[in-house]
Amino acid sequence: MRYLAPNLMYEHLIKMKGYLKKPLVGMDVGLSFIGVSISSEGHKVARPLRTLNRDKDDVKKVIRDLVNERNLSGIVLGWPTYNLKRTDNTGTVEKFAEELFQMQDLGDLRFTTWGENHMTKIAELLINKLEYAAGEKEQKKADTDMLAATSILQGYLDYINCDKTRLHSWSFKLCSSQLSPKSPPTPKKNPKKTPKKTPKK
What we know:
By secondary structure, the protein is α/β, with parallel strands linked by helices. The chain has six helices and eight strands; from the N terminus they run E-H-E-E-E-H-E-E-E-H-E-H-H-H.
């Protein structure tokens, strides 16, 4: 997999044949859970999909299954910032991005990042209005992350569908990522051993 900045990801998508029928997946990455959302056909609306438990689920296998079964066009990771500065959770997303870089078996699939901008906090406020049993604390957290992933993906979908001529540069800066573009590491080649010359007698 390779990373593209949000605007370059958009340019990549519109060049992709039949991309409107290939959904995007959004992810809210945390230490314990990863909320997952998916876009509708036409890339208009994001909807909740599932939540991954990082201790119990094989995250890489789930991603591979999503790519193969849903024919994805790309992945959007939530990028946590506060006043355009890094937060404690930013490093968690960076480490997860490194794991995506290592998944070279996914071919030409790209991923990008989009600003969270308190989306997890907004999701918590919405979830708090629902009635969970006392023993459903973990389920409540999982649902919160899934809803946050939906908000992250919807933000990016709104960007790719908006009139770019009316988009202020400051608003794009507010949501675009600070993740440095990288390419998957190239496998190291074993140096060829030159045969030792035997001295002539």
